[in-house]
Write a structure and sequence with these properties.
Blueprint lengths: L1 H12 L11 E2 L10 H18 L1 E3 L2 H9 L3 E2 L5 E3 L2 H8 L5 E4 L8 E4 L2 E2 L9 E4 L3 E4 L2 H13 L21 H12 L11 H15 L3 H6 L4 E6 L4 E2 L1 H14 L2 E6 H4 L9 H4 L1
Parallel strand pairs: 2-11, 10-12
Antiparallel strand pairs: 1-7, 2-4, 3-4, 5-6, 8-9
């Protein structure tokens, strides 16, 4: 058995991986039109009616008050906010058609939007598997090895999150070890998890140190992106709302908000793809 494992390791270390040099990509083709204009308008109108008539629960007090200050309407006796469709259109219209995320090495900067195409690593896998040890829960050693693999592949342009959960690290400080490894083992753009205001602000401090810049420059040249997975499309928990509220305002970081139940289709949920869109 040991002889077979040694032979496999020797075969894997002979020579290098032949690959194209690092480059950025653009898609020359138009997006596939899955829905026609009438169908898109119907979905848009239905979503606006939900925001105007029913609203979304904001469980984080600070985020809720900030939304009210920007024009949202608080439903009396609840934590639910209603949003006028014109207010929504105003703020959606402020989103740039394209933006650039800045890595600690300028050659690894990436532009998103338009017809730019960027390839990232998989994120949030609970288990890892290899030929020598088989399938097992992820540990920090595995996490670091997968970061090294990402760094070695020119086609993987950014780190989409934890390639495997380093479950052997203490949950309260796991993000610090994970971000430190991403900074020191790769030169790619990396992804902090939106698990509350403090963790996001830790990520902001670390990327500023890594790039040798202040928060003012980070606001002009953002580096971070994150995904907020709400448990329900109509409810933002404290960690869900606190992440963008604590970081995005001051540092220009980019956020994607999706209902977790729409992404994790094995969960019981009334959501369909049209609803997620």
């Amino acid at each position: 058995m040991q002889r077979e494992q040694r032979a496999r390791r020797e075969r894997r270390t002979v020579g290098g991986v032949k690959q194209l040099p690092w480059r950025t990509y653009r898609n020359p083709y138009k997006p596939i039109e899955v829905l026609n204009e009438e169908q898109i308008e119907r979905i848009h109108d239905a979503s606006m009616r939900i925001l105007e008539e029913f609203g979304i629960e904001f469980l984080d007090d600070q985020a809720r008050q900030r939304a009210i200050a920007k024009g949202a309407e608080l439903v009396p006796g609840t934590q639910r906010l209603r949003f006028d469709r014109h207010l929504v259109a105003e703020y959606v219209g402020k989103a740039p058609a394209e933006f650039t995320l800045h890595a600690r090495v300028a050659e690894r900067n990436l532009t998103f939007g338009g017809n730019h195409v960027n390839f990232g690593s998989v994120a949030s896998a609970p288990n890892v598997s290899d030929l020598d040890k088989g399938r097992r829960p992820g540990k920090f050693e595995d996490y670091c090895n997968l970061l090294r693999l990402t760094q070695s592949l020119n086609v993987v342009q950014f780190i989409g999150g934890y390639p495997v959960e380093p479950a052997d690290m203490p949950p309260a400080t796991r993000h610090l070890d994970a971000h430190h490894a991403a900074i020191t083992l790769t030169d790619r753009i990396w992804h902090p998890y939106s698990l509350g205001r403090e963790r996001i602000l830790d990520a902001v401090e670390m990327i500023c140190i890594a790039r040798g810049i202040g928060k003012e420059q980070l606001a002009r040249e953002p580096s971070l992106f994150s995904i907020v997975n709400s448990n329900s499309p109509l409810r933002l928990r404290r960690p869900d709302a606190a992440g963008p509220d604590g970081d995005g305002r001051a540092t220009g970081s980019r956020w994607s908000l999706t209902p977790l139940r729409c992404r994790a289709r094995w969960r019981r949920s009334p959501c369909r793809r049209a609803g997620a869109a």
